Amino acid sequence: MSDPSANNTGLDGARAWIMRQGRWSPFEVAFWLAVFIPFFFFPTYLTLASQIAIAALFVLSVDLILGYAGIITLGHAMFFGLGAYAAGLLTKTGWGEPLTGLLISGAFVALVGFLVSFIIVRVQHLALLMITLGLGLLTMELANSMSWLTGGTDGLQGVSVWPIFGTFDYDLWGYTAYSYTLIVLFIGVLIARRIVNSAFGLSLRGIRENLNRMPAIGAPHQRRLQVIYTISAGMAGVAGALLTQTTSQVALDVLSFQRSADVVVMLILGGTGRLYGGIIGAIIFMVARDQLAGINPQYWYFWIGILLMIVVLVMPKGILGFLAQIWERVRR
Amino acid sequence: MTGNLLIVLFDGLAFGMLLFVLSVGLSVTLGLMNFVNLGHGAFGMLGGYLALVVTREAGLSFFVALPAAFVGAAVVGIACERTLFRRLYRSGELNQVLFTVGLVFVATSIATFLFGTGQQPIQIPDMLRGWVEIGGLRFGIYRIFLIVVALVVTAALVFGLEFTRFGAKVRAAVDNQRVAQGLGIDVDTIFAITFALGCGLAGLGGALAIEIVGLDPTFAIHYLIYVLIVVAVGGLGSIGGSFVAAALLGIADVAGKYFVPELGSFLIYLLMVGVLFWRPLGLFGKR
Amino acid sequence: MPTKTTFVIAVATGLTWSIGVHAQETVKVGVILPYSGPFADAANQLDAGIKLYMQQNGNMVDGKTIEIVRKDTGGPAPDVAKRLAQELVVRDGVDIIAGFALTPEALGAADVATQAKKLMVVMNAATSVVTEKSPYIVRTSVTIPQVNYAFGKWAFEKGGVKQAYTLVADYGPGHDAEKSFAQGFTEAGGSIIGADKTPVANPDFSAFVQRVKDANPEAVYIFVPGGGQPAAIGKALSERGLTPPATRIFGQGELTHPEALESMGANALGIVTTFHYTLEREEPLNNAFVAAYREANNGRSPDLFSIGGYDGMHLIYEALKKTNGDVSGDALVEAAKGMAWDSPRGPISIDPETRDIVQNVYIREVQEVDGTLQNVIIDTIEGVKDPLHGANN
């Protein structure tokens, strides 16, 4: 975007541009160094940090469809929750190994996401929002009514996850949980970077900007949207599975509308279509929530609400978008 | 048996009418201004608490409380529109979502602070209690009252939109904002008045809802989902659409529960997903 | 000489150390509740019970200050509850964890109590299995089978009802209630002629009530969550003409809580409910409790959550007295086992085997007393244990 020479040198120029977009920026490196801070300075916050990492992975999955492909959703907890239940039920069959559990859960949810994507790509705007919402709520009602399988409101009982690599068990402090979720988040970000900085990722942004023009320039949108939706669902499923594995708890709230709404709030708060925007949003939302609820367990919602409203009025492109603007101004 | 069916359908219709009054305002403002106001339920909650204050603290009649709820919610609505929401008309639906979610959080906290977390019962006049018996069937008087209110609201809205000068301006603004502005219509003011009207109707709905579903600080979030369903199924900006959608959802939900109780909790969502998949713009939506 | 000095120093340091212990040592109690979100009201009432107990009994036990650390789960969220329990242990250094309005949250935190060896006082969560999840759990509230199994038997034997229809909310507690009422009722000889489940989120009951009417049972048993639903279902029943004495209405105590009665009006007359706490029970201890509670809470009456929190704090205070300040989970659990006391709800005790509460179950009928509707106790079943513990083994 900033370099005009990239536009006029044909295919090689485009390829170079894409490559350049995929390079690691100093900010990214700094971010991935900063994630180690909790280990040394806030060791009593590691459990929270692990749940933030899980939320960040979930937000990332929504950013892939909402931020990059323009698929708005109010029901993504459906995939998060299915992943959580898949991971939990898997351990009940006697296979408690976490890494394969994560992959199996993710693959299962991706399959569900693929099936759902046939519906999703055919609607837009309010209908899309409401259909995702409806499917999410239907899944939750289904889980409630299938309490013989899911444990219903009381939650799935008897989830037992084996230690990672057979050695690292989940401690009270959360060292294992945070390390584990952090590594999975890192891999998630690697995959997401790879996708958005590819030609495929660029075509998604084209679809987001103008749905009707993309087929005209030879990029049919439905198949592409289905692919990214499937990937996103799988990633959300992995996030859900992580929650099950690190807490050994699964209950209906993993599928709740609240969770679907929160993840969208975190994403917009941080800034859409920026990968790290959602992650920053998750960190700010959850840390603010934890701290405010610590001060006043009953009225912290008030301050979160004020925070959201101020962010919209002052930083219409989200927190990361705002920071990026400032950086642009400083650099000039 | 047919009598039973009739009474079930009647109850469903009455519940649908409650949803209609709660949601029609959102349908109009969404259709007119493309403003995604997830805080609509909060205005309903506001109306509910206003009605409560009027009946309980001021000791006035429920029939005074209803217009008070309408006016109060409308005034707060127009205040919010003039100071806050108007800044967001151009800033994209995602920011509107975030902002109005923030508003719901704030409203919920304020309601908790002022009225506590408990359920608030409301005293309705004796003449609205009980039932009338027609052909051996008992029709709840309050439910009849709900249907009457909804019909009056619909008639007033349809008349206002179809047969008044203001209505013509609103329709013009909905159809094409730019051209309307070019013709010298003050779209800005029309927005504000329409918004106030929408919030006022939500407030009225909130006041009417207490007797049927109760009132506590979670009202704003809980009923948002039903409101959105009615709006989406009916089609944006369509009063008739919202009316039909609300009636359909109310009746189908109750009838479904009566005949297939196992599907009770699924019905309303299945219906919505089905309708929107078949007609993404809703039953009566134009765009 | 040196020995004497050493002795003096030793005594002096010993003294200051022990004074230090008595002057500074606090016992921290972490309270985990859904203070915000859909269950905020339950948390609020439970917390008010805790506060009232501390207000009445001071915040000092055996020379130690009791300090409460409050944490919000924001709704039914077992993962958050577990995290908060972990944080309370590792960051805040609490000695006891308490609260738990909701079963999934209690189950979520149970592992932490076991791992950290801390006493965990469950002040509400009413599913039987909760206390079996950790040897450190003690419950001071109620279990749904406890009140409903006994009630089912009562309905047939003393209520004189031969057949009934059940209508319960479609979620864990509702299923438990349906099962235990039906079990007690059918074991006594009654028959269930129909059973429906109402969606938790969708508040219009008319279709279900019509189904009950079609079946024309002698009695209908109802379980819905507290809050707005009791009044709604009560009104739907009366609109259909399903009112006592023509059709008996049975339910768990939430059905006729004070706000619901106010909203239902005269239609509520004759409804029979089962509960472990009855607001209007005439007894000096209870009268004092209710009066103090109302004064502290703007006239709001205590409910099942309040009494769970109140008695939970009593258990914590008494256990600390018994252990002479030993806050280890093992010592406190031992102290709690078999503990018995007079609560505003009546005589209660902790079953030493299951660590669950043993208490009276009251059968109440809605009657008009001095112009207001009240739950009047018409029968008392004494010393009821949860019928499910041990049944699974």
TrEMBL record, chain A:
Superkingdom of source: Bacteria
Mode of membrane association: Multi-pass membrane protein
The answer on whether this UniProt entry bears the keyword Transmembrane reads yes
Q: Which UniProt keywords apply?
A: Cell membrane, Membrane, Transmembrane, Transmembrane helix
Transmembrane ranges? 29-48, 55-79, 99-121, 128-149, 177-204, 263-288, 300-327
Keyword Glycosyltransferase found: no
What compartments host this protein? Cell membrane
GO CC list:
plasma membrane
**Cross-referenced Pfam families, in alphabetical order?**
BPD_transp_2 (PF02653)
Q: What InterPro entries does the entry give?
A: ABC_transp_permease, LivM-like
Q: Which GO MF terms does the UniProt record name?
A: branched-chain amino acid transmembrane transporter activity
What PANTHER family is this protein classified in?
A: ABC TRANSPORTER ATP-BINDING PROTEIN, HIGH-AFFINITY BRANCHED-CHAIN AMINO ACID TRANSPORT SYSTEM PERMEASE
Q: Supply the name of the protein.
A: Branched-chain amino acid ABC transporter permease
From TrEMBL, chain B:
Keywords assigned by UniProt?
A: Amino-acid transport, Cell membrane, Membrane, Transmembrane, Transmembrane helix, Transport
According to the UniProt record, one GO cellular component term is: plasma membrane
Instruction: List membrane-spanning regions.
Output: 6-28, 35-54, 60-85, 97-119, 139-161, 190-215, 221-251, 263-281
- What membrane topology does this protein have? Multi-pass membrane protein
Question: What InterPro entries does UniProt report for this protein, alphabetically?
Answer: ABC_transp_permease, BCAA_transport_permease
Q: What is its main location?
A: membrane
Citing just one GO molecular function, the answer is: transmembrane transporter activity
Q: Which GO terms describe its biological process?
A: amino acid transport
Q: Which Pfam families does the protein's record reference?
A: BPD_transp_2
Top-rank taxon of the source lineage equals Bacteria
Protein localization:
Cell membrane
Q: Which family does it belong to?
A: Belongs to the binding-protein-dependent transport system permease family. LivHM subfamily.
Q: What is this protein called?
A: Branched-chain amino acid ABC transporter permease
Q: Which organism is it from?
A: Aquibium carbonis
